[in-house]
C-alpha cells in the first residue's frame, strides 16, 4: 500500500506509512460504529425469542464498544491530522531542497509563480486530501467489502439486493474517472495561466501605463478569467453528473430490500429483525459509498497537482563531488551548448582563462558571451566538450563547492527586501559588521550608504527599488569583495551606468580583480584594452584570441568592434 500511495499521490515514505496507518484505524472506527447496530440487533432478536439476558450484559457490551470506539476515534484524529501536517511540512521542505538542486535552466523554462503555487497551494490541496480523502477512501473501501461479505453470508438474497446497486453506483464513478481527471487538469492549467497573467500585470505596470496598454491588458486578463470560469463550470459538471447518477442508483438499495423482504416475510423465509438490520446497514453502506465518491472526486481533482509534483521530482539535478580546488585556471575545450536542440548558442569554443590574469570576452550581441559565463559557473551544464578548473571537469564538481570559489557580478543585480548590511552579507554569511563595512568601502559605496536614513540598517525595498542602478551595482560588488572568491565573473556591469557611477565601479573593480581569475564580458571596449587576454566571439564561435595590440593587427572583426565603439562614444543627438 505504501508504494501505491507514494507513486499515485506523491507522498514521502513517512507520509505514505502514516496515511496507511490512519486508514486502518479509520476502518476499525467504522466497524465500531456498526457494532452499535449489531448489539441492537442481538437485543431485538433476544426479545423476539424471549431469551433476553441480564440488562447489565447489554449495557456492558455497549460500554465496552463505546470505550473502544472512543479510543479509536481519538487515535484516528491524532494519526490522521498530526501525520497530515507533518507530511505537508516534509513535502514543502523536500520541494524546496529539490528546487535548490535544480540547474538554472529549469527556472528559465518555468514560471516563478508556477513554482510558488506548487510549494504553497498544491501542497495545501494534497494536505487536505491526506487528512480527509485518502484515509476515508481506503477505510470506507475496506469497510464496504467487509460488511458486504458478511451480509452476503448472512442472507445472500438480501445481501445481493443491498450490494448490487451500490456496486453499480461505485462502478459508474470509477469508469468515468478519466473524464473527470481530464477536465480538472484543464481547469488546473488554465488557473495557472490566469495567475501568471495577474503576476505579469502587477510586474509590468510601468510598461503597461507608459505605453497606453491598460485597456488591452484589462481585456486580456478578463479573457483569461472567462476561460477559467468556463473550464471550472465544465469541470464541475464532469464531476457532478456521475456522482448524481451514482447516488440515484444507490438509493435503489432501500427499495430493493423493501420489495424483496416483503415477499420473503410472507413465506417466512426471513426474520423481521434481519430485514430491519439490512435496511439500517444499507443506509450506512450508502453513506460509506457516498463518502468514497466524494473522496474520489477530490483525489481526481488532485491529479494535475500530483503530476506537477512528480515532474519536479523527476527533473535531473546537477550532480558532483566536493573536490578540493587549489589552482584556478579555467580551461574550455570544444564547448558546445544550446538553450534548445535547434538553437546552438556556443559552438566548439576553446580558450584558457589563467589565474592572476584578466580575460575579456567581446563580440556582437547574441554571440554567446554571457552564456559562457553561466557555463563556467555551472548555472547551465554544457552539452559537449569540457570546462576544467584545476584539472576537474566542472560537471564533476558539486555546485556548492564551485559556487564557494566563484563571485558573480551581473548587469541585472538581484537584491533582497532587507537592509543594506544584510544584502552585502550574502557574500559571506556570518561576516562581522566591520568586515561588511570594509567591503563597502572597497566597493566605493560606503559614502552613499551612510547618507541613507538608517545607514547600513536601511531597508532598500523589493530588489533594491530605493537605490539607483549604480548604487545597486556597487552593493553587488561589495558582496564580491566580502566573498573574496578566487574566480570573478563580470557581465556587462557598466552597460547602463552614468559616467560618475561607472568611474566609481571601475575603480572598485581594479581593486577586486587582483590575484584572481577574472573573466569580463563587456561592450565598452575602451575599458578592456589593457587586460591580459581578449577573446573575440562571433555567432557562438571564437574568432580570435590575443591582446588588444595583437587583435588590432590580426582580427578584422575586432577592428570593426573597436570602430563601432568609437563611433558610439562620439555620437551626439541632433
TrEMBL record:
<dbReference type="Pfam" id="PF00005">
    <property type="entry name" value="ABC_tran"/>
</dbReference>
<dbReference type="Pfam" id="PF00664">
    <property type="entry name" value="ABC_membrane"/>
</dbReference>
<keyword id="KW-0067">ATP-binding</keyword>
<dbReference type="InterPro" id="IPR036640">
    <property type="entry name" value="ABC1_TM_sf"/>
</dbReference>
<dbReference type="InterPro" id="IPR003593">
    <property type="entry name" value="AAA+_ATPase"/>
</dbReference>
<dbReference type="GO" id="GO:0140359">
    <property type="term" value="F:ABC-type transporter activity"/>
</dbReference>
<feature type="transmembrane region" description="Helical">
    <location>
        <begin position="159"/>
        <end position="176"/>
    </location>
</feature>
<dbReference type="InterPro" id="IPR017871">
    <property type="entry name" value="ABC_transporter-like_CS"/>
</dbReference>
<dbReference type="GO" id="GO:0005524">
    <property type="term" value="F:ATP binding"/>
</dbReference>
<protein>
    <submittedName>
        <fullName>ABC transporter, ATP-binding protein</fullName>
    </submittedName>
</protein>
<keyword id="KW-1133">Transmembrane helix</keyword>
<feature type="domain" description="ABC transporter">
    <location>
        <begin position="330"/>
        <end position="564"/>
    </location>
</feature>
<feature type="domain" description="ABC transmembrane type-1">
    <location>
        <begin position="24"/>
        <end position="299"/>
    </location>
</feature>
<feature type="transmembrane region" description="Helical">
    <location>
        <begin position="20"/>
        <end position="43"/>
    </location>
</feature>
<dbReference type="GO" id="GO:0005886">
    <property type="term" value="C:plasma membrane"/>
</dbReference>
<dbReference type="InterPro" id="IPR027417">
    <property type="entry name" value="P-loop_NTPase"/>
</dbReference>
<keyword id="KW-0472">Membrane</keyword>
<keyword id="KW-0547">Nucleotide-binding</keyword>
<dbReference type="GO" id="GO:0016887">
    <property type="term" value="F:ATP hydrolysis activity"/>
</dbReference>
<dbReference type="GO" id="GO:0034040">
    <property type="term" value="F:ATPase-coupled lipid transmembrane transporter activity"/>
</dbReference>
<dbReference type="InterPro" id="IPR003439">
    <property type="entry name" value="ABC_transporter-like_ATP-bd"/>
</dbReference>
<dbReference type="InterPro" id="IPR011527">
    <property type="entry name" value="ABC1_TM_dom"/>
</dbReference>
<feature type="transmembrane region" description="Helical">
    <location>
        <begin position="137"/>
        <end position="153"/>
    </location>
</feature>
<dbReference type="InterPro" id="IPR039421">
    <property type="entry name" value="Type_1_exporter"/>
</dbReference>
<keyword id="KW-0812">Transmembrane</keyword>
<feature type="transmembrane region" description="Helical">
    <location>
        <begin position="55"/>
        <end position="73"/>
    </location>
</feature>
<feature type="transmembrane region" description="Helical">
    <location>
        <begin position="252"/>
        <end position="280"/>
    </location>
</feature>
Amino acid at each position: 500500500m505504501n508504494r501505491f500511495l507514494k507513486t499515485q499521490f506523491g507522498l514521502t515514505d513517512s507520509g505514505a506509512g502514516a496515511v496507511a496507518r490512519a486508514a486502518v484505524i479509520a476502518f476499525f472506527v467504522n466497524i465500531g460504529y456498526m457494532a452499535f447496530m449489531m448489539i441492537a440487533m442481538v437485543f431485538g432478536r433476544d426479545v423476539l425469542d424471549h431469551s433476553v439476558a441480564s440488562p447489565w450484559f447489554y449495557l456492558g457490551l455497549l460500554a465496552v464498544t463505546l470505550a473502544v470506539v472512543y479510543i479509536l476515534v481519538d487515535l484516528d484524529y491524532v494519526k490522521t491530522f498530526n501525520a497530515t501536517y507533518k507530511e505537508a511540512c516534509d513535502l514543502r521542505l523536500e520541494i524546496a531542497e529539490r528546487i535548490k538542486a535544480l540547474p538554472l535552466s529549469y527556472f528559465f523554462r518555468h514560471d516563478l509563480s508556477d513554482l510558488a503555487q506548487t510549494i504553497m497551494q498544491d501542497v495545501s490541496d494534497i494536505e487536505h486530501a491526506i487528512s480527509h480523502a485518502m484515509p476515508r477512501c481506503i477505510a470506507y473501501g475496506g469497510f464496504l467489502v467487509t460488511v458486504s461479505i458478511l451480509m452476503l453470508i448472512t442472507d445472500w438474497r438480501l445481501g445481493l439486493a443491498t450490494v448490487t446497486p451500490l456496486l453499480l453506483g461505485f462502478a459508474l464513478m470509477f469508469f468515468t474517472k478519466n473524464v473527470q481527471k481530464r477536465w480538472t487538469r484543464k481547469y488546473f492549467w488554465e488557473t495557472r495561466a490566469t495567475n501568471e497573467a495577474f503576476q505579469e500585470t502587477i510586474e509590468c505596470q510601468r510598461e503597461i501605463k507608459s505605453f497606453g496598454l491598460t485597456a488591452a491588458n484589462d481585456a486580456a486578463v478578463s479573457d483569461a478569467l472567462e476561460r477559467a470560469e468556463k473550464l471550472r463550470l465544465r469541470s464541475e459538471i464532469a464531476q457532478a453528473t456521475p456522482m448524481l447518477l451514482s447516488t440515484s442508483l444507490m438509493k435503489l438499495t432501500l427499495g430493493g430490500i423493501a420489495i424483496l423482504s416483503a415477499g420473503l416475510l410472507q413465506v417466512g423465509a426471513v426474520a423481521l429483525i434481519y430485514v430491519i438490520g439490512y435496511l439500517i446497514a444499507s443506509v450506512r453502506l450508502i453513506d460509506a459509498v457516498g463518502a468514497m465518491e466524494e473522496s474520489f472526486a477530490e483525489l481526481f481533482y488532485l491529479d494535475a497537482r500530483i503530476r506537477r509534483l512528480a515532474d519536479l521530482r523527476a527533473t535531473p539535478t546537477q550532480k558532483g563531488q566536493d573536490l578540493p580546488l587549489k589552482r584556478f585556471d579555467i580551461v574550455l575545450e570544444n564547448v558546445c551548448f544550446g538553450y534548445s536542440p535547434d538553437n546552438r548558442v556556443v559552438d566548439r569554443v576553446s580558450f584558457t582563462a589563467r589565474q592572476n590574469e584578466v580575460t575579456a570576452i567581446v563580440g556582437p550581441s547574441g554571440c554567446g558571451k554571457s552564456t559562457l559565463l553561466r557555463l563556467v559557473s555551472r548555472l547551465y551544464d554544457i552539452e559537449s566538450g569540457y570546462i576544467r578548473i584545476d584539472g576537474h571537469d566542472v560537471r564533476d564538481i558539486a555546485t556548492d563547492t564551485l559556487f564557494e570559489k566563484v563571485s558573480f557580478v551581473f548587469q541585472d543585480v538581484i537584491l533582497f527586501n532587507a537592509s543594506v548590511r544584510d544584502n552585502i552579507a550574502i557574500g559571506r554569511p556570518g561576516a562581522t559588521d566591520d568586515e561588511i563595512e570594509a567591503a563597502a568601502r572597497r566597493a566605493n559605496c560606503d559614502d552613499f550608504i551612510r547618507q541613507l536614513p538608517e545607514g547600513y540598517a536601511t531597508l532598500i525595498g523589493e530588489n533594491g527599488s530605493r537605490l539607483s542602478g549604480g548604487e545597486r551595482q556597487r552593493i553587488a560588488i561589495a558582496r564580491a569583495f566580502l566573498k573574496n572568491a578566487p574566480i570573478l565573473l563580470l557581465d556587462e556591469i557598466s552597460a547602463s551606468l552614468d559616467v560618475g557611477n561607472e568611474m566609481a565601479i571601475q575603480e572598485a573593480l581594479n581593486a577586486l580583480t587582483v590575484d584572481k581569475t577574472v573573466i569580463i564580458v563587456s561592450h565598452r571596449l575602451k575599458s578592456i584594452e589593457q587586460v591580459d587576454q581578449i577573446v573575440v566571439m562571433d555567432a557562438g564561435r571564437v574568432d580570435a584570441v590575443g591582446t588588444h595590440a595583437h587583435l588590432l593587427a590580426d582580427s578584422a572583426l575586432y577592428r570593426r568592434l573597436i570602430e563601432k565603439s568609437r563611433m558610439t562614444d562620439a555620437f551626439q543627438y541632433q
